[in-house]
């Protein structure tokens, strides 16, 4: 399993994509160099992904800043307060319940480092509030998996629509099928599309 851990890895994947697809080559020419986007793994990163669900990048960043300032980024801290305390920091009641479920899950984060994308997704989605998008983003950025995609992401869908001149924004299944052509560098293809989204829409599509 290839792991992306340096800018050189991203550049290698971008070169492969550019040679494989003229439209990817066009997007890469507009957006290079692509960001590495590697993040730490562990509880805080999954909690951050939950915070980012179905809100704008700016809103997610603002809520996360409040949680971070209040030192609410560990399982122990989350379990020491109630949902009203978490709501006061900007979480919806639903996301507050998800945060507590994550804190109670006892995930073996060290073990996930050597797990396949399918195994990571299976373990994480067993936790209330963690869907396939969150699991795939975690595998992509926190674990560095080179060949994972997140087709449920609206920014990726919109970027694919514009870049490939599609009549409509592709739904999750259609974009997942489309992404097969970008294997074994689907994670780099996602970086290309997020970067292209930023250029086209003049705003960030991923935190």
Give a description of the structure.
The protein has two domains: 7-35 and 147-201, Endonuclease Iii, domain 2 (Orthogonal Bundle), CATH 1.10.1670.40; 43-142, Hypothetical protein, domain 2 (Endonuclease III, domain 1). Helices cover 62% and strands 0% of the residues. The chain has 13 helices and no strands. It has 207 residues and is mainly α. α2 (22-31) crosses α13 (186-201) and α11 packs across α13 (186-201). 39% of the residues are buried. The chain is globular.
Radius of gyration, Cα only, in angstroms?
A: 17 Å
Q: Using the 3D structure, state the CATH architecture of the largest domain.
A: Orthogonal Bundle
Shape call: globular
CATH topology of the largest domain: Endonuclease III, domain 1
The number of domains: 2
Q: CATH top level of the largest domain?
A: Mainly Alpha
Oligomerization state: single chain
Structure class: mainly alpha
Classify the beta-strand content into a percent band: under 5%
CATH superfamily of the largest domain: Hypothetical protein, domain 2
Largest sheet: none
Number of strands: 0
Q: What is the average per-residue confidence, as pLDDT, rounded to a whole number?
A: 95
Report how far the terminal alpha carbons are from each other.
Answer: 25 Å
How many DSSP helices?
13
Low-confidence stretches: none
Helix fraction, binned, reads 55-70%
**String of helices and strands:** HHHHHHHHHHHHH
Write the layout of secondary structure elements.
Blueprint: H1 7-20, H2 22-31, H3 43-52, H4 57-69, H5 75-79, H6 83-88, H7 93-105, H8 109-112, H9 117-124, H10 132-142, H11 154-163, H12 172-179, H13 186-201
